[in-house]
Design a protein that fits this description.
The radius of gyration is 20 Å and the shape is elongated. By secondary structure, it is mostly helical. The longest helix is centred in the last third of the chain and has 29 residues. Helix content is 65%, strand content 0%. Helix 2 packs across helix 3 and helix 2 crosses helix 4.
């Protein structure tokens, strides 16, 4: 955890991820705040550790505005994943290391699995129903 000048501890990973997004995209805190639906002062106080980390919805908007892929990475960096869901945590950390191209490929594959198994379950369900 880090305290970049404030009383509230914020995760170093969150601070680093946010600042890296600003630098890579050459965007201002003001613009990120605007796109995230929060005030510039709220964002500034958050980064200084004066305010707590915003809600997950706001973090997702920030991640999108900072072009962080996947945007959920900012939520993870803010330590917002439940401690007891180790499978999800493991999966998310593996996804973080993917390139944008690999991430898109993984999403397409997941969509195809969802479609496949949804159709199979629907077919099974229809087979068990009797319309007599």
């Amino acid at each position: 955890m880090c305290k970049p000048g404030g009383a509230t501890e914020i995760p170093l990973a969150f601070y680093s991820c946010f600042m890296q997004g600003l630098k890579q995209n050459k965007v201002s805190q003001r613009e990120i705040a605007r796109q995230s639906g929060i005030s510039e002062s709220y964002l500034s106080r958050t980064l200084k550790g004066v305010r707590g980390i915003p809600s997950d919805d706001v973090l997702l908007k920030m991640g999108e505005a900072l072009q962080i892929h996947p945007p959920e990475r900012l939520i993870i960096a803010a330590n917002r994943i439940p401690d007891n869901d180790w499978n999800l945590i493991e999966l998310l950390f593996k996804v973080l290391d993917l390139t944008d191209e690999e991430y898109d490929k993984l999403l397409r594959y997941a969509d195809s699995l969802t479609d496949k198994y949804s159709k199979e379950k629907l077919t099974e369900r229809k087979a068990t129903l009797s319309f007599e």
